[in-house]
Every structure is written in C-alpha cells, then in structure tokens.
C-alpha cells in the first residue's frame, strides 16, 4: 500500500519539469481541440500522435498520448453541448441533456457541469487504475496461454457485440482484424504467412499505419464525402464549474464512476458504452427521470463522469494483461510496445514504476483538462467555426506523413490508404472499425496463446475449458455468441420474462 | 447521431444489446448488400482456410500438427466463412439489423450531421488516390505535393457554396493561403523538429 504511494509520489515528482509540463498541457489542449472537431476521434488522435512522437523518449511519448486521450474525450463534450453533435462517440450521451441546457441559455453551465463531471470521473478512474492494476497483474501471474487465448477472443467478441448495431458485422470485423494480424512471419516458427513472396508483407502490415488508415483516412474520407452545415454556436453564460452540482449528485458521480471503470476494464468495450450505461443507470435511479433528455444536470453529469472514468479503466487491462479495454487503449498499448514497454502481468515485476508513471500521467492530464475547462472555454469555441473542408485535407496530410515516418517506406503509406479506403466503404454499410482494431492488436497474442496452449497440453483442448478462469471466459464468449442467435435469444427473453413474472407474483 | 438516435441509444445502457434490437429478429425485404457482403466474406474465409491448409506444416522440423503456423489463420478463415454464410442467409431472407447507409455508426465522423453526396465521395477518392499514388514519391518535392493536395481539396469542396455566395475569388485565395501554410508547416515541423524524412 505505502510502497505504491511512494512509487506514485516519485512518478508525479518525476514529471515536475518544464518539458513534461509543456507536453502535458500541449497534448491535453491538442486533444481537446481534436475532440471539439466532429469526425476526429480519440483513436485517430492517439494513432497520429504515436507517429509524431516516435522519436521521443518512451515516457514523454506515452505522456503525450495519455494527455491527448483524456483531452479528446473531454473536448468532445463541447460540440455535444453547443452543436448537438458529439465530438467523439463517447460524448453522444452528453448531447441529450447538454444540448437541451444550451437551448435553455445555460450552455456555460452545461460546460461547467461537463468539466466537473469529467474531472470527478477521471479522478475516480485514476484511483482505480492505481489500486486495481497491481492487484490484477498479480492475479494474472497465474494465467497461462489458455487464459490469454480466451481473454484475446473475449475482447474481440465483446467489441464486436457492443460496437455498432449489428453484432454479426462486429464479429466479422473482429475476425478480419485477427486475420490481418496473422499476415507476415508467425510468432513461433517465423514462417511467412499470406505474404505471397512480397518482401513488404513478410514483416506483416505495420500496426500504426494500419490503425491510422482504419481510423484516420476512413474518417477523413467519410467527413469529406458529407456536406456539413456551418455550425451555429449557442451563446455561452458563465463557465465557472459549479462543484455544488457534483456534490448534490454525489451518488450519481460515484455510480457513474464505478460503471465507467467497470465498462473500461471489460476488454474491447469503450467510452461510448460507459457513457450510455452510466446515463441509463442514472435515469433508472433518479427521482426525476422525466427530466432526462430535457436538460437534466444529473444526466449530463452521469454521461461525462462515465466516459472519463472509463479511460483509466480501459488502461487497467492494457497494463496488467496487455488486453486493451477500448479501441483508443488498443492504440495506446501498441504505442507502448513500439516504445519498448511490454505491458502484461510481468510489468509489475519488471517495471512497477511504469504503472505509477501512467497513473501520474492520467493525473496530470486531468489537471490540464480542469485548467483548460476553466480558463480557455470561449477561445476554444472558435475552433468549432473552422470549416471541416479546411481541416480534413490537413489531417489526411498528417496521416500520410505519420505513416511514412515510422519506417520511411511508401508501402506503409499505401497500407494506410488501402485500409482507409476499405474502412470507408465498410463503415457505409454498418461495419465498425473498433473490433477490427482490437483484432489487429490481439491477433498475435491469440495465435501464440492458442498454439502454445496446445503444445503444453499435448494437443488436448481440455485445459481451455476446465481451468477455472478459462472455463468462465469460455462460457462468457459462448454465451455472447449464443444470445445473439435470434431463436436462442427469443427463448432466453421468454424465460427471463416468465421468471420475473413469477417473482413479482410471489412478492 | 441525431438526438432521436440518442434517445433510442440511451436504452443501450445494459450490455444485453439484442433486446434493444428487435429489427434483428423481424422479417422484411431482402437486404442485397448484406447478401452480397455475406458471400464475399464467405469466399474470403474459404480462401483463407484453403491458404492455411496448403501452408507449409514444417513436418521436417518436427512441428506437431496442433502447432502448425496455418492453424489459427485456418480456424479464423472457417469462422469467417461461417459468419459470411449466416450474413448472406440473413440478407437473403430479409432478416437482421438494417444494413447500408441508414445505420448510424458509432465512431468518429459518423456522428456528423451531413449526408454523403456521390460527387463528394468521387472527389474525395480522386484527391486522396491522386495524392498518394500519383504524386508522392514520383518526383515532385513533398511540399509541392502537399500544397497541391490541400489547395485542390479546399477549393473544390467549397466551390459550389462559394460560387452560390459569389465569393469564389476569396475562397481560392483562402485555399491558397491555407494550403501554403499547411505545406510549409508540415514540411518544417517533420523535417526540422521531428527529424523525419518526408515521402
């Protein structure tokens, strides 16, 4: 306990130099600006910044990425409140009450509530990050290939089930991501797979250019192909956050924080689901559910606390298990690996300080978020007025340069473009990129874990199902699959309704 | 995502998603896009499975059959084949979540309020393909490629609105300045600050 506090104190002090603070505030501001622009997501921001910071020392680069991550999710609430357009998917729930408050002439108050809710959620998530990560990493030391196989599959299946409107399409994208990760030399015998003799493919598709294509190029193409009206920004009243709003709704804050962290920890489930789940739970528990959707302060607090709490939540399994909790966390995980940090159960043994460094990075990002939320609200609103027709070509330019910067080869730029084009067309038909990204990041782990597990068991599949945690994860994966089959889902719903009716009669 | 979408999406609070998607169980007209995509995924899955089956099994190195390099890709191919067939069948029978462009994806740009227009899609594709395949690495310096791409993108996408508003000249001047600034800034920052080679 005290060892952890000492390590955390050392980490915080380690970042108290002018350069780290410049990176903190610069990256948080950049994140907020990106979040303010509809069409630019947290995943895109982190992917692009990974390429830009590739030459920086690992700590500085990861600090920039974490600050940009936190800033982007927070910045998205600006457009949600003022334009009724969520800046990132995570802020969609904030539109419901935030925009209604703005229409009532309380845009400033809504932004203040979003700031305090985000800070509260972030602090709660940071506390969980600092306490749960070491515990989870210790438990995960007992994990073998069997558990890691199921965790990887669980992440892809959950992401596929929950992202978008059609689980089947989500799973297809997940499988596609897992397959693309198999291209190139295999991780055990170094045999080239699906490279067709092409030396560029022998090493596999580079992760970062592929991610930049999936989230950057495809988003740029999507936004370029849509005509956007010039935004009308609502007048802004006082933006000073009212901490009283948070104190009055402390139960909502706490509940949303817990839900946010829980959803964040679930592999593959992102901030958007955390916001919606927190919002729905707050509505169910509220004394005034009728106000939700009509400018409810409680609703806005729930949404913004939930999504910001899920950021540290998503980083917990990324650090402790090397299984990302969300798509942006997947890119963050990839960036850590590129910078020579190897997340996973051994991280707490080999580099315990790094875990607390990440906690300190989140803390600094939260301070940056509060600072800009207090002092730079009105100047930031000018960003909303910049036409997207000017921003998107420049973002594509950065996607190109960023992809090339990794290894100075045009093949990576072509990879980015190819994945971007495919992603652009697939998104138009309801296929989501998040499960693809999860599959891409987890593909190598899944492949190695499955084959190593079989080697350990002499070809027997039993340990994949009979070991306690393996069995539990296997059951969840299979249930997720089965419950999405319409006839089985109908039977399940009927059985659930019958049971509930019986209980209500008994009561 | 519109507010109306948001209201319905608010019900996604729980993780038992299927309950909120009755469309997934209702019959209806055939979904040609789902059917064709399903066939495509099935063919792709079968090809992956076949490629994995015919892959070197490293028997001479004493690799056991359950550890061959093609095992996981092969299984993934078979799963993709299965999912593709289910999607095709669902599309054929007119069941399943509404496909095509009515679906509001939950990522990034999809929340924007605009609707895709064919000429914009064509122009966007032409510009990015022209920039990456036609200009980069073909001789012209990067700053010139970047300038041309950004200038053309801004000028052409804003052309109809500018012409309607009678501000075409101003629009071209703004596009020129933004493109020149972006090309110079990106070239300088990457080459001089990040010490990165440019394409």
Topology summary:
The complex is a heterodimer of chains A (507) and B (199).
Chain A: H1 2-14, H2 18-36, H3 42-52, H4 58-83, H5 92-103, H6 107-140, H7 145-162, H8 167-180, E1 184-185, E2 192-193, H9 199-202, H10 207-224, H11 243-248, H12 250-265, H13 271-285, H14 297-320, H15 327-338, H16 347-350, H17 352-375, H18 377-381, H19 388-407, H20 410-428, H21 434-456, H22 463-466, H23 468-483, H24 486-506
Antiparallel strand pairs in A: 1-2
Helix pairs in contact in A: 1-17, 2-4, 2-17, 3-4, 3-10, 3-15, 3-19, 4-5, 4-6, 4-14, 4-15, 4-17, 5-6, 5-14, 6-12, 6-14, 6-17, 7-8, 7-21, 7-23, 8-21, 10-19, 10-20, 12-13, 12-14, 13-14, 14-15, 15-21, 19-20
Chain B: H1 3-10, H2 32-53, H3 71-93, H4 118-135, H5 142-165, H6 168-193
Helix pairs in contact in B: 2-3, 4-5, 5-6
Question: Could you characterize the architecture of this molecule?
Answer:
The complex is a heterodimer of chains A (507) and B (199). By secondary structure, chain A is mainly α. Chain A has a domain at 2-143 and 237-385. Chain A is 75% helix and 1% strand. Chain A has 24 helices and 2 strands. Chain A has helices spanning 2-14, 18-36, 42-52, 58-83, 92-103, 107-140, 145-162, 167-180, 199-202, 207-224, 243-248, 250-265, 271-285, 297-320, 327-338, 347-350, 352-375, 377-381, 388-407, 410-428, 434-456, 463-466, 468-483, 486-506, and strands at 184-185, 192-193. Chain A has a two-stranded antiparallel ribbon. In chain A, α4 crosses α5 (92-103), α5 (92-103) packs antiparallel against α6 and α8 (167-180) packs across α21. The longest helix of chain A has 34 residues, at 107-140. Chain A is globular and about 65 Å long. The N and C termini of chain A lie far apart (45 Å). The model of chain A has no long low-confidence stretch (mean pLDDT 88). Chain B is mainly alpha-helical. Chain B folds into 2 domains: 21-102, no CATH class; 117-193, no CATH class. Chain B has helices at 3-10, 32-53, 71-93, 118-135, 142-165, 168-193. Chain B is flat, with a radius of gyration of 25 Å. The longest helix of chain B has 26 residues, at 168-193. The chains are: A mainly alpha (507), B mainly alpha (199).
């Amino acid at each position: 306990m005290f060892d952890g506090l000492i390590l955390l104190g050392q980490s915080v002090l380690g970042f108290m130099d002018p350069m780290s603070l410049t990176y903190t505030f610069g990256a948080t501001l950049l994140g907020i600006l990106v979040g303010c622009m509809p069409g630019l997501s947290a995943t895109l921001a982190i992917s692009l910044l990974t390429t830009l910071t590739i030459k920086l020392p690992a700590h500085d680069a990861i600090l920039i990425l974490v600050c940009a991550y936190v800033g982007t999710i927070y910045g998205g609430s600006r457009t949600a409140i003022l334009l009724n357009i969520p800046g990132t998917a995570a802020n969609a729930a904030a539109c419901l009450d935030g925009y209604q408050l703005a229409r009532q002439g309380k845009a400033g108050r809504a932004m203040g509530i979003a700031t305090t809710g985000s800070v509260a959620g972030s602090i709660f998530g940071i506390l969980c990050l600092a306490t749960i990560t070491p515990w989870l990493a210790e438990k995960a030391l007992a994990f073998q290939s069997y558990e890691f196989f199921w965790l990887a599959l669980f992440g892809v299946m959950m992401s596929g089930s929950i992202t978008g409107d059609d689980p089947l399409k989500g799973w297809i994208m997940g499988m596609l991501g897992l397959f693309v990760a198999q291209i190139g030399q295999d991780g055990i015998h170094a045999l080239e797979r699906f490279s067709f003799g092409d030396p560029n493919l022998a090493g596999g598709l580079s992760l970062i250019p592929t991610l930049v294509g999936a989230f950057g190029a495809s988003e740029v193409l999507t936004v370029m192909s849509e005509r956007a009206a010039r935004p009308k920004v609502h007048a802004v009243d006082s933006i000073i956050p009212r901490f009283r709003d948070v104190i009055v709704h402390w139960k909502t804050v706490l509940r949303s924080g817990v839900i946010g962290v829980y959803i964040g920890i679930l592999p593959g489930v992102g901030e958007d689901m955390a916001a919606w789940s927190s919002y729905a739970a707050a509505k169910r528990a509220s004394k005034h559910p009728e106000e939700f959707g009509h400018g409810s302060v409680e609703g806005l607090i729930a949404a913004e606390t939930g999504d910001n709490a899920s950021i540290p939540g998503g980083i917990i399994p990324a650090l402790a298990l090397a299984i990302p909790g969300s798509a942006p966390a997947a890119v963050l995980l990839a960036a850590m690996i590129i910078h020579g940090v190897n997340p996973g159960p051994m991280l707490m043994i080999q580099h315990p300080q790094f875990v607390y460094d990440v906690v300190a990075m989140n803390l600094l990002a939260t301070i940056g978020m509060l600072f800009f939320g207090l002092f730079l609200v009105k100047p930031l609103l000018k960003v909303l007025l910049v036409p997207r027709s000017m921003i998107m070509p420049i973002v594509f330019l950065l996607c190109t340069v960023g992809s090339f910067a990794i290894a100075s080869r045009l093949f990576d730029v072509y990879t980015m473009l190819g994945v971007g084009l495919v992603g652009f067309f697939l998104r138009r038909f309801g296929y989501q990129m998040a499960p693809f990204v999860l599959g891409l990041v987890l593909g190598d782990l899944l492949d190695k874990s499955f084959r190593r597990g079989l080697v350990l068991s002499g070809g027997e599949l039993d340990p994949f199902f009979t070991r306690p945690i393996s069995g539990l994860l296997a059951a969840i994966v299979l249930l997720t699959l089965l419950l999405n089959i319409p006839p089985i889902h109908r039977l399940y719903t009927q059985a659930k309704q019958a049971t509930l009716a019986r209980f209500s009669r008994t009561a | 995502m519109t507010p109306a979408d948001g209201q319905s999406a608010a019900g996604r609070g729980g993780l038992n998603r299927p309950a909120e998607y009755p469309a997934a169980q209702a019959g209806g007209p055939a979904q040609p896009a789902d059917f064709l995509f399903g066939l495509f995924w099935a063919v792709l899955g079968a090809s992956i499975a076949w490629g994995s089956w015919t892959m070197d099994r490293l028997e001479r190195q004493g690799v056991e059959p359950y550890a061959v390099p093609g095992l996981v890709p092969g299984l993934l191919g078979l799963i993709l084949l299965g999912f593709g067939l289910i999607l095709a069948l669902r599309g054929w029978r007119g069941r399943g979540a509404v496909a095509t462009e009515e679906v509001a994806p939950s990522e990034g740009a999809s929340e924007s309020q605009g609707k895709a227009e064919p000429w914009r899609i064509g122009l966007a594709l032409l510009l990015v393909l022209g920039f990456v395949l036609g200009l980069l690495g073909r001789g012209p310096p990067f700053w010139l490629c970047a300038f041309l791409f950004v200038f053309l993108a801004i000028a052409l996408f804003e052309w109809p609105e500018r012409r309607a508003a009678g501000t075409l000249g101003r629009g071209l001047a703004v596009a020129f300045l933004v493109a020149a600034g972006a090309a110079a800034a990106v070239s300088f920052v990457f080459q001089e600050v990040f010490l990165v080679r440019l394409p």
